[in-house]
Amino acid sequence: MLAIPIGWIVAVFVIDILAPPGIHLGPLLVAAPAITPSIGGPRAVGLVAALAVIAQTAVGVIRDPDELLSANHEAQIAALALVGASLVVFCVLRERREKELAQVRYVSEAVQRVVLPPLPRRLGPLRTASLYLAAEAEAQIGGDLYAAARTGTGTRLIIGDVRGKGVSAVSDAALLLGAFHAAARHRASLDELVAYLDQSVSWGLAEASGAGHGESFITATVLDIPDRHARIDMVSCGHPPPIVLRDGRPTTLDAARPAPPLGLGALSQPRYHIDSYGFAPGDLLLLYTDGVTEARDGSRAFYPLAERITGWSHSAPDTFIDRFRDDLLHHVGGHLDDDAAMIAIGYAGTLRSDRAGASGDHTAS
Q1: Angle at 221 between CA 218 and CA 222, to 5 degrees
Q2: Do 151 and 190 belong to one domain?
Q3: Do 156 and 19 share a structural domain?
Q4: Whether residue 126 sits in one domain with residue 101
Q5: CATH number, domain at 158?
C-alpha cells in the first residue's frame, strides 16, 4: 500500500521538473505523508515524509540551483519536514491508544466468558440461543442481562435491562444475576421469586449508592416454562413484552398487570401478577431488551421487530438468532446506540420431563 504515496511523490517530482519555470508543484508533496497514516504506522510515515523532503530538495537542485537556498524553497522544505514529524507523532499516539483499547477489549471479553457466558443450546426439553450486542466500542458487556436455571419441574428465565451504562450497570446486572441464581430453584412460586429479586436489588442498590431507593432500577421479565405443560408463566416488571412466533404470526405477550421495575418495589409494595400463555412445540419464544426495538437506521426509523421476524418462524433458535443479528446490524449500519440482547427459545421435541442438567444455572449479559 505504500506504493500509493510513493507513486504520488514520483509523479509530482517528474511533473514539477517538466513544468514551465513559473509553475511549482512542490506543495502537492505534502499529500503523500498526509495519507500514509491510513495505511501504515510511524515508520512508514517517517519514510514517506523523508522521501517527500528529498524530492522537494531535488526539484530545487535540478530546476534552479541558485534558488535552492531561497527563503521560499527553504520554507517549503521546512513545512514538509514539520508536517512529516507531526504525523509521525500522531501515529505513535494512535498506536498507543489502539494497544490500550485492545487490552480493554481483552479484559471485557474475559469477564464476559467467566461471569456472563451464553446460554447453552439445550435446557431440558427446550432449545435456546442467545445474543448480546454491546453498544460501546471499547467493551463487550453492559447493562443488559439474561439468565436461565433448571428446576425440578421446568426452566426459569430472566431477561433485564439496567438503568444506566458502564461499570455501574455491569455491577447492578451482576447483583440481579447472583440473586436469580441463588433463588430460582428454591422459591416455590414465580411471584415469590420476583419479590425476592426485587428485595435483593433494592437492598443492593441502596447499599452501593449510600442513598435511598429510586436512584437506579432494572426492568425485567421473569418466566417459568414447565416441562410437562404447554404454557409460559410470566411476571413482567416494566420490561418489553416477549413475542411468540406461531405459524409465521407474531403474538405479543402483554402483561395484564405489570409490576414496577426491580429496585422500586419498596416505593409501591406491588403484588406480582402471574400471566400464563400457551407455548407448544413448533412455537418460538423471543425475549429481548429495548435496545432491539429502539435501534434506529440512518433515517431514524426504529427496527420493526414484529415485521422482520415473520419469515423466520420455522427456524431453529440458533439459526433465528444468526439471521436476527445480521438483520439488526444491517438496519443500524453496523453500529448500535444502545446494548441489545435477545433469547430465542423453542421445544426440542414433544413435551416430556427431561431432568438432564437439572442442577445447571446459565447466564449471559
Answers
A1: 115
A2: yes
A3: no
A4: no
A5: 3.60.40.10
Mean pLDDT split into 10-residue runs, the chain, 365 residues: 91 90 85 92 93 89 72 84 94 92 74 75 94 72 87 94 79 90 89 94 76 70 94 96 93 94 83 94 95 92 93 90 95 88 88 45 51
Q: What is the pLDDT of residue 211?
A: 47
CB 235 within 8 A of CB 274: yes
Q: How many Å apart are CA 122 and CA 227, to the nearest integer? A: 13
Contact status, residue 73 vs residue 60, Cβ threshold 8 Å: yes
What is the model's pLDDT at position 139? Answer: 60
How is residue 268 written as a grid cell? 409501591
Residue 251 lies in a domain: yes
Amino acid at 172: D
- pLDDT for the residue 355: 40
Structural domain boundaries, residue 135: 118-364
Phi-psi region of 357 (alpha: psi -120 to 50; beta: other; left: phi over 0): left
Shared-domain flag, residues 195 and 74: no
Report the amino acid identity of residue 240.
P
Q: Provide the domain count of the chain.
A: 2
Write down which residue in 77, 107, 137 finishes a domain.
107
| pLDDT at residue 356, rounded to an integer | 40
Closest CA to 176 of 199, 152, 142: 199
What pLDDT shows up at residue 350?
Answer: 63
Residue 295 shares a structural domain with residue 152? yes
In this structure, are 173 and 282 located in the same domain?
A: yes
Cβ partners under 8 Å of residue 214, min gap 6 = 263, 264, 267
pLDDT at 362: 53
- 248 shares its domain with 287: yes
Q: Which contacts (CB < 8 Å, 24+ apart) does range 71-80 have?
A: 76/26, 76/27, 77/53, 79/30, 80/29, 80/30, 80/33, 80/49, 80/52, 80/53, 80/56
Which region holds residue 334: left if phi is over 0, alpha if psi is between -120 and 50, else beta? left
* pLDDT score of 198: 94
As beta bridge partners, residue 2 has: none
- C-alpha torsion angle, residues 31, 34, 39, 42 (rounded to 10): 130
Whole-number pLDDT of residue 17: 87
